[in-house]
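Please annotate this fold before class:
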Amino acid sequence: MSSSNFDLAPKGLKELFLKHAGKSGKKDSMDKGELKALLHELFPGLLENAKDPEALDKLMRALDHNNDCEVDFDEFVVLITAVVNASGRR
């Protein structure tokens, strides 16, 4: 699945989120490893080709509004919204 193929409908986003959430932490959130796996699925090579080796850590800190070291669904939606806005896709 690439970034051009994921379902932007709320149900599709929730299914995508739940596919990756809870594998190593809370069932309704993603830790850094789970977020990395999701980003790798959606955007292959994105993190590997990042100019900043701390890009994932910075992204995690920016998304994690409640500072629990996990990304919940609402925080995930912030990421998807930013990607959609940046790409011009609606």
